[in-house]
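Figure 3 (text version): structure tokens given as input.
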């Protein structure tokens, strides 16, 4: 019978457990500090590249393609740093959630779906939202936004042009359910248990070409842990995926009237 990480740690001597926790804190601090240090110079580089692209000068025209590629990569690096900082915050603050409030999820999902349609662009995905506007969550709105957007945007990135993406927000058995169903490329069974690991990519080439950082589902996992929620993933290669987040009864608020 396989032991969980928590069970394994509990079976170790206190000195060993303390040392492991110390090393983990060092890792978190290192990632956070390096990310902070990279943020400022990268912002400067990104700003200069934007200025060069905005200017229509004869001197810079031969370099425009190069500047465009550099600008795209600087955007990707900025996104990676922001995700690293967010993940570091979620890990260091695990168990704490000081900014919880009743969150109207339906309106939040409308905004995210509009952003997903912009991300889809010429790929013309058919994105449908079915959200119960009486159903709210007790939680951190910014963290929940990050959770929902990461899962929805992943569906956009891994679904071929004209594919179908359906988002459902519903109440069942005293629990709130957030479900994203897509007609995308699907995920092989051996990859599913590892999807929420940092930088894990089931399809590395596809992920890089779509601008993915490999951190989205790791962030989603930590947000779910902080909200005592579960993630269920079902997928089949070539037939799409279904990601379902299930929130416990103590966080699910079903109103008698619409907001």
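Below: residues designed for each position.
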């Amino acid at each position: 019978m396989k032991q969980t990480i928590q069970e394994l740690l509990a079976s170790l001597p206190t000195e060993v457990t303390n040392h492991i926790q110390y090393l983990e804190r060092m890792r978190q601090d290192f990632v956070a500090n390096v990310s902070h240090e990279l943020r400022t110079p990268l912002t400067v580089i990104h700003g200069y590249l934007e200025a060069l692209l905005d200017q229509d000068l004869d001197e810079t025209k031969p370099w425009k393609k190069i500047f465009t590629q550099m600008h795209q990569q600087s955007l990707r690096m900025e996104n990676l740093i922001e995700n690293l900082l967010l993940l570091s915050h979620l890990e260091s603050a695990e168990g704490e959630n000081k900014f919880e409030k009743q969150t109207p999820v339906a309106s939040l999902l409308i905004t995210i779906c509009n952003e997903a349609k912009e991300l889809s662009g010429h790929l013309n995905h058919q994105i449908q939202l079915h959200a119960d506007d009486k159903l709210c969550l007790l939680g951190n709105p910014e963290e929940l936004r990050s959770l929902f957007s990461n899962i929805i945007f992943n569906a956009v990135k891994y679904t071929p042009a004209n594919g179908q993406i359906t988002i459902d927000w519903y109440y069942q058995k005293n629990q709130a359910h957030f479900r994203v169903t897509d007609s995308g490329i699907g995920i092989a069974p051996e990859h599913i248990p590892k999807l929420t690991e940092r930088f894990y990519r089931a399809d590395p080439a596809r992920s890089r070409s779509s601008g993915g950082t490999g951190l989205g589902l790791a962030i989603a996992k930590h947000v779910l842990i902080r909200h005592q929620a579960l993630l269920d993933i079902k997928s089949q290669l070539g037939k799409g995926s279904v990601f379902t987040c299930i929130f416990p009864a103590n966080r699910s608020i079903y109103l008698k009237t619409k907001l």
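The chain has two domains: 5-92, 101-254.
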